[in-house]
Model the fold of this input.
Amino acid sequence: MEQTASAANGSCPSDGVLTRRVVVANQLGLHARPAGVLAQEAQKFASEIYLDCQGQKVDAKSILDVLTLAAGQGARLELKASGEDAEAALDRIETLFKERFGEGK
Done:
């Protein structure tokens, strides 16, 4: 998992959007259960949080939006957040991806 340089050094880019790249490691991809976990966690933050997959940008706080990505195992996503708690939001969501949303495979 990597961060863009602007987010990695703790400063905000000029547009105020922090970005990180993640990979879907779950064997079944970003299916209903992990999409639900992602949306629930994203809703805990005041910042706007988006997922971008091959140019399709969706609201990470909406399970239905996340499911429309149909992101399978190995899909590369870009997390984008802006707002007062954007860095904390990206930290939490990146951790979910690293931990495979609590799924073993």
Strands lie at 2-3, 18-23, 48-53, 56-59, 76-82. DSSP finds four helices and five strands in the chain. Confidence is low (pLDDT under 50) at residues 1-11.
